[in-house]
Amino acid sequence: MDLHSQLLNNLPVFEVSQMMGKIIDFFDKTTCSHVAITENNTFLGVLPENDLAYFEADKKIEDYRHNLENFFVTNETSWLDVLEIFARNEANIMPVIDADKHILGYYDLTDIVGVFIGTPFFTEPGGILIVEKGMKDYSMSEIGQIVESNNAKLLGAFITDNQNDVVQVTLKISSTSLNEISQTFRRYNYNILFGNSDDQFLEDLKKRSAYLDKYLNV
Predict the structure, then answer these.
(1) CA dist 31 to 56, 68, 129, 188, 194, Å?
(2) Please, what is the Cα angle at 166 between 165 and 171, to 5 degrees?
(3) SS (H, E, C) the chain
(4) Do residues 12 and 35 lie in contact, with contact meaning Cβ atoms separated by under 8 Å?
(5) What is the pTM of this model?
(6) How do 93-97 and 34-39 pair as beta strands?
(7) Which pLDDT score is estimated for 209?
(8) What is the mean pLDDT of residues 38-59?
(9) pLDDT computed for residue 13 by the predictor
(10) In which order are the strands placed within the sheet that holds 14-15?
(11) 192, 130 in Cβ contact below 8 A?
(12) Distance between CA 16 and CA 40 in Å, rounded?
């Protein structure tokens, strides 16, 4: 999936030698969670809007170097990794840098999620199945074989959780009749966590995802 078309160049980047007043003014006028800081045009980190109450306008950004957070993506980072970095850092804006740590622009969370929702995983008719199995025992090739053995197609699959050596995999399947597929997964010792229609899954996703509600429903 090509994210290059989602790159934003209309948001500022601040040099560490500038005054904090510019940062304060930026956050006052936007809903951005972070803004990128450079030193001699090289990416240094991002300042979080959450620290706004501690910023003093007559000080330099340099004085708040200890407040900088260090997260970013490159123009080669996959869309799924981009989403993960957004979520892990509770950000709605993401600096994109090149190999020399020069800032190319930003990704906006709303744009990236929009690209994700536009993929066949969400747009193609079908059903959602969430399965789990031990890290050492599961296999994506086996998962695909189980789905296809029931005369269905696997439209997409990704790992949505990984704890205590147990992997949770969310599947989009071309068929909405998941009973036989679920039974086959159980015979292969997969635990079925969720198996329902696409519409119901999306409704559940909307209700449970506080992170997306926070940043997408502003």
Answers:
(1) 19, 18, 35, 48, 35
(2) 145
(3) CCCHHHCECCCCCEECCCEHHHHHHHHHHCCCCEEEEEECCEEEEEEEHHHHHHCCCCCEHHHHHHHCECCCEECCCCHHHHHHHHHHCCCCEEEEECCCCCEEEEEEHHHHHHHHHCCHHHHCCCEEEEEEEECCCCCHHHHHHHHHHCCCCEEEEEEEEEECCEEEEEEEECCCCCHHHHHHHHHCCCEEEEEEEHHHHHHHHHHHCHHHHHHHCC
(4) yes
(5) 0.66
(6) unpaired
(7) 53
(8) 96
(9) 97
(10) 14-15, 34-39, 42-48
(11) yes
(12) 8
Rounded to whole angstroms, the Cα distance separating 51 from 36 reads 14
The residue among 157 and 27 whose pLDDT is bigger is 27
Own/partner pairs for 202-209, CB < 8 Å, 24+ apart? 202/122
Please, what's the b/e burial string for 9-42 (b: 16 or more CB within 10 A of its CB; e: otherwise)?
eebebbebeebbeebeebbeeeebbbbbbbeeee
Within 8 A by CB and 6+ apart from 70, the residues are 45, 46
179: its two tokens: 């009973």
